[in-house]
Amino acid sequence: MAEGTSLKLLFLEDDPEAVTLFRERLIQEKNPPFEVQCVQTLQGGLDLLEKGGFDAILTDLNLVDSKGFETFQKLHDRFPGIPIVVLTGSYEDESIGIRAVQLGAQDYLVKGEIEGKILPRVIRYAVERHRFREELELRVAERTTQLEDLNKELERFTYSVSHDLRTPLRSMTGFSEALLEDYGSRLDAQGKDYLQRLSAESQRMDKLINDLLNLSRLNRGEIRRERVNLSAAAREIVGRLKEMQPDRRVSLFISDGITAHGDPTLLRLVLENLLGNAWKFTGKRPGAKIVFGATRQEGKTIYFVRDDGAGFDPAYSGKLFTAFQRLHNEAEFPGTGIGLATVQRIIRRHGGLIWAEGKVGKGATFYFTLEAMDSNSKGG
Amino acid sequence: METGLVDILLVEDNQNDAELTLRALKKVNLGERVFVARDGAEALEFLFASGAYSDRGAVAGPRLVLLDLKLPKVDGLEVLRRIKGNEATRIIPVVILTSSKEQRDISEAYRLGANSYIAKEVDFNKFSRAIAELGLYWLFLNQPAR
Lengths: 380, 146
Description:
The structure holds two protein chains of two kinds.
Chain A: E1 7-12, H1 16-27, E2 34-39, H2 42-51, E3 56-60, H3 69-78, E4 84-88, H4 95-102, E5 107-110, H5 118-164, H6 166-183, H7 189-217, E6 226-229, H8 230-244, E7 250-254, E8 259-262, H9 264-281, E9 288-297, E10 300-307, H10 339-349, E11 354-358, E12 364-368
Parallel strand pairs in A: 1-2, 1-3, 3-4, 4-5, 7-9
Antiparallel strand pairs in A: 6-8, 9-10, 10-12, 11-12
Helix pairs in contact in A: 6-7, 8-9, 9-10
Chain B: E1 8-11, H1 15-27, E2 34-37, H2 40-47, E3 64-67, H3 76-84, E4 94-98, H4 103-111, E5 116-119, H5 124-141
């Protein structure tokens, strides 16, 4: 409906009195003028709509050939692009009008309560609202397409990263190894050591690429929600850490019966990272202590992993969860700098929060929740 | 290279990876009758004795194909589709040998009839062991259809 042109309305009504009354009110309108076409049956209405050209529909719900809510539904199903205002009788239950609005009608009017100029206004607004909504939907669709394209682009990027960055690394490890095998006898201990470092660094880069890919994969896919026994998972993880370094003496305290509602694979990854970090950063402390527990605050569970290891400078706590940001140097505590970024992403995807407390040389505690918390209440 | 008698067709565009794969095969004495195709198109010409390889007897076809996925001209999945879609070549075992660990590549390869899917390891010792084991398995241990 362009400005200045008339608004073409189809009016479905089988009561001649109502036809005359409402038609009178509508054709008095000048801005914009209404062109009203009246029809007595639903079938007649559908036939006219088929020919096109209508800006809006005003319909009584009770016609000779269709009664009640069904009248609206049939019109809306066939012509979802045309705004509909329904009329209900004053003796009818108003809920039918409300239901029509819930399912896509622009408005409803109760006969006998339609005073003055309200009728043309309701129809005009219905047309405007409908047009506005269609515009919004169009914009949402455009935005969605853009985002989908961007996502595909990102996936293609991830794919080539996973493939193309690994290939040169394999050449590096492969030819280092070949050199060592074929010419090892001509190299002294330092020469061999250099080659081994080359190989080890290539493998470290491979791990980095892997961690990064896992991090980017976390944005895809659904989060499963099921009951997970975190105490059992923590015991298993710690058991494996002990196996890898049987000489270390660490006191481990894992509370019993800690459960969570979340994705089992991802939550395990969280614990592997947090407990792995605690294990790593207590490596230089004889008789270290690591605790996994949970407390409740305002009806919500706060999980925590605490250690008395190297800790961190609280001034840099904001950088803890940023990928590739490390607060310790590689020689002292090796790592890729992606672990905590991964943990944070998993926690966020569960709708939870993660934060940390610590001091240099005094250990660190990582807290996390798996449900939304009032951000003021965090802080241990 | 002698193209008459070939046990293994290695389809690999990366010169370094091809050399390292051959090195691993040689360690278990499987390096002699290997033909290396540099892209998917060459692999198909070789397999179906067409183009530059039209004088090659189709009967001397490889007993095993080691196939990279990301290839110039015709990609690995397409090569696989053609091998498995042809009566004469579908019985040749095809092992996908790739850097990609993407689940969708793995599923698609198996859907098209790949016999194995091996992700190339950066750790050369692991890579080397995998190549040796798969070569021995498919050429000696596995009993092929006649």
